[in-house]
Design a protein that fits this description.
The complex is a heterodimer of chains A (165) and B (549).
Chain A lengths: L1 E8 L3 H8 L2 H6 L4 E6 L5 E9 L2 E14 L4 E10 L4 E12 L11 E13 H6 L2 H28 L7
Antiparallel strand pairs in A: 1-7, 2-3, 3-4, 4-5, 5-6, 6-7
Chain B lengths: L2 H11 L4 E4 L6 H9 L3 E4 L3 H15 L3 E5 L3 H4 L2 H9 L4 E7 L13 H7 L3 E4 L6 H15 L2 E7 H4 L25 H13 L3 E5 L1 H5 L3 H11 L2 E4 L13 E4 L6 H7 L4 E5 L5 H4 L9 E6 L14 E4 L2 H14 L10 H7 L18 H11 L5 E4 L4 H8 L6 E3 L10 H11 L5 E6 H6 L2 H8 L4 E7 L4 H9 L14 H7 L3 E5 L2 H13 L4 E6 L7 H8 L4
Parallel strand pairs in B: 1-2, 1-3, 3-4, 4-6, 5-6, 7-8, 7-10, 8-9, 10-11, 11-12, 13-14, 13-15, 15-16, 16-18, 17-18
Helix pairs in contact in B: 1-2, 1-7, 3-5, 3-18, 9-14, 11-14, 16-23
Classes of the chains: A alpha+beta (165), B alpha/beta (549).
């Protein structure tokens, strides 16, 4: 499934990028997720618990992160399987932080463009059918809310939001 | 004597008292002979429905149901019913004619053996008059031994030949006995080891547990180890007199039950296949070890998983043996059986989520509870697949005989036929069928069969004028739900036009009055109950919308 989100956050692109380029901070915005140690090849171990309907599924994943500071963009690719070994997933998310479009008042914040592709295969896929994509969409929305709140908190502290200008 | 006469006699000798099917060139002489022998021949409106009726008979009595179709075009109608019955492990013998051996260009020519194989049914063919007894015996033997449908295919010209043997027919039952299967000692010890250590054991009982009469033994074992009791969908309400019964395990489990199941460290499957639905592929029991008891040499659980300890045994014998071993070890655990768990199980299945109803419709959740309350427990209930059982299976909790006809193949349309077979098998015991509108309409003509034979069957059509499953799947994907909407005539009026009773109900009061009327005088009747599309069942909310409740 593919999901596109445009997230408006109340902080300038520089502040948002500073936050997004810290993988630990980003993962904290994903409920049920935690990032482990970085491996020699640069990848990370991660854990993610997802509720599909009433079923809690604990995934262990390997995460690769690529960042392009100049373009203020990045790619997070994760793949893993669940504790019982019956379900595999692969997800790839690219994001880019932009200034508000021309015509809008500068200093009013940033826009994060997010594009995700998520594949779920195996036993669980046969049980949850279309529910899975709604779960992933809800997770994405939740992530956007968390990220927005975080950006607002950082911006407030730094006094960089439009309201503080 | 003609071969067809001997064939009919052989069926009678096998204990056949009722058949379901349609007469045609290939089976008409045999059918006429059955009439003479006192067999209740049920002439139906579609061969596939006749097969479904034999399936209902088989599921109710565990003895072979008998269906019949002429040949060729009559046989091809059997497809869905055959696969459903094969998956449900229903013993059935289907008597079919076959094109004459002397006419390969016969208009109804069809390779029935390949058809039977594709439909997962056994196949036995009458080749010569001398083998008449042999093939009937073989068909019944195979149906019972393998617990599946077997097609007996008899070419028309062979049926008309003379049968000269005057020896008495020897029915298949004389030729083999099935003893009780006792568990292996070492496997039994391993099972006892695992169960003795369990702090949170769940016993899941399936049809096998019910069939073997393991009920009391399960209650005793449950008491000793502090187990939570649950059933597979097929055995729903079995043993729910126990206050430690948590309902159906798996997709139809209530939210409080799921929370309890997730704590389990051991799951004991008693005559239950523990398939993907029953354990949610294991996700409902993430930390459990499994002990599985079944009469099969081995049963693989869903997704290639195996029980930690498998016992090939009769369910009752194995459960009693495990209980004896645990008694010797003085096992007596509290397990789940605490006041807190008991409190969590009170009315655990009630779905409290509120929905606004479409005008002129009822809340299907309330309706199934009303029906459960008004229909006496000695009356049977049958439910369909698709959306309807999401309400009936979770909310109807009175202990009663219940047949689920479509689940093994995920088909619709098989429910009315199965209900007819069940009512006939139970000697006209009144029964209620809850079915969706699309499913019921598929074999609507068979309601006329219900009327013609005066069967005490109440059909409650849970009518939301749509293909329910598809409607909610489209909705979840934000697609046009109206493509799944199909207007439906007043089925109460249709019932009346067919000679039965019928009511269109748009309120709980109208439903109550109609059900009471039927209970007082059970006869062929349809209640066309208009239900609100705004209420998705709990399983649908989980599966299609990814919601917890």
């Amino acid at each position: 499934m593919e999901i596109d989100e445009t997230i408006q956050v109340p902080a300038d692109p520089q502040t948002v990028w500073a936050l997004l380029s810290d993988p630990y901070a980003v993962v904290e915005c994903v409920s049920g997720a935690s990032l482990g140690d970085q491996r020699e090849d640069g990848s990370y171990d991660a854990k993610l618990t997802v509720k599909f309907g009433p079923a809690k599924v604990a995934f262990a994943a390997r995460v690769d992160i690529e960042m392009d500071a100049r373009a203020r963009s990045g790619t997070v690719a994760a793949r893993g399987k669940d504790q019982l070994g019956g379900t595999r997933f692969a997800a790839s998310t690219t994001f880019r932080v932009e200034s508000p479009a021309a015509g809008e008042v500068p200093g009013s914040g940033s826009i994060i463009l997010v594009h995700s592709e998520v594949e779920i295969a195996g036993r669980l896929a046969s049980l949850i059918e279309s529910g899975a994509s709604l779960v992933v969409k809800r997770m994405t929305r939740d992530f956007a809310e968390q990220l927005t709140a975080r950006c607002a908190a950082v911006a407030d502290a730094a006094g960089t939001t439009s309201g503080c200008d | 004597m003609k071969v067809y006469q001997r064939l009919a006699q052989a069926f009678r000798q096998e204990g056949v008292t009722a058949t379901f099917g349609m007469m045609g060139d290939g089976n008409m002489y045999w059918v006429t002979e059955l009439h003479k022998l006192g067999v209740k021949v049920h002439e139906v409106r579609h061969e596939g429905a006749g097969l479904g009726m034999a399936d209902g008979w088989a599921r109710t009595t565990r003895s072979p149901g008998v269906a019949t179709a002429t040949c060729g075009p009559g046989v091809t109608q059997l497809a869905t019913g055959l696969v459903t019955a094969a998956r449900a492990r229903s013993p059935i013998v289907v008597f079919c004619g076959e094109h004459p051996t002397i006419d390969e260009e016969y208009i109804q020519h069809f390779d029935q053996s390949r058809f039977a194989a594709a439909c997962e049914a056994g196949f036995v063919r009458l080749g010569t008059p001398e083998t008449t007894d042999e093939v009937v015996r073989k068909a019944f033997h195979q149906a019972k031994l393998e617990s599946r449908p077997v097609m007996l295919s008899c070419p028309m010209d062979i049926q008309q030949k003379n049968f000269d043997d005057d020896e008495a027919y020897r029915p298949s039952a004389e030729l083999f006995t099935r003893g009780t299967i006792h568990p292996d000692d070492a496997a039994l010890e391993r099972a006892a080891d695992i169960i003795a250590e369990a702090r949170k054991p769940v016993i899941i009982v399936g049809r096998g547990g019910e069939w073997s009469g393991a009920g009391e033994a399960i209650l005793r074992l449950g008491e000793r180890i502090g187990a939570l009791l649950a059933t597979s969908l097929m055995a729903r309400t079995f043993l729910n007199e126990s206050e430690w019964h948590a309902g159906i395990s798996g997709t139809y489990a209530s939210r409080p039950a799921i929370s309890l199941f997730e704590e389990a460290d051991v799951v004991i499957g008693v005559g239950a296949s523990l398939n993907r639905y029953t354990t949610e592929h294991g996700y409902q029991y993430p930390n459990a070890r499994y002990v599985q008891i079944d009469v099969e040499p081995h049963v693989m659980m869903s997704g290639g998983r195996f029980a930690d300890c498998y016992l090939q045994a009769d369910a009752r014998v194995a459960v009693e043996a495990i209980d004896r071993l645990l008694a010797l070890r003085s096992v007596n655990n509290t397990g789940y059986r605490t006041p807190d768990v008991k409190a969590r199980l009170v009315n655990h299945q009630v779905d409290r989520k509120e929905f606004l109803l479409d005008p002129g419709t009822v809340d299907p959740r309330e309706s199934v509870v009303t029906i459960d309350e008004l229909v006496p427990p000695e009356f049977g209930v049958l439910s369909g697949s698709g959306m309807t059982p999401g309400f009936a299976n979770m909310l109807m909790t009175r202990r009663r005989r219940m047949v689920q006809s479509g689940h093994f193949f995920g088909c619709i349309g098989q429910m009315l036929p199965a209900a007819i077979g069940t009512v006939v098998a139970m000697d006209n015991n009144p029964s209620v069928l809850l079915d969706g509108d699309a499913s019921f309409m598929m074999h609507l003509a068979e309601f006329e069969t219900v009327v013609r034979y005066g069967l005490p069957l109440l059909v409650v059509v849970m009518n939301n004028e749509c293909l329910g499953a598809e409607y909610y799947k489209l909705d979840a994907k934000s697609m046009d739900v109206n493509t799944a909407v199909i207007a439906c005539p007043d089925l109460g009026a249709v019932a009346v036009s067919m000679g039965g009773k019928g009511v269109l109900a748009r309120s709980d009061g109208q439903l109550r009055a109609a059900v009471k009327q039927w209970v007082a005088n059970p006869q062929p009747m349809i209640i066309d109950l208009r239900i609100s599309r705004t209420v998705p069942s709990v399983p649908y909310r989980r599966i299609h919308y990814g919601l917890d409740e």
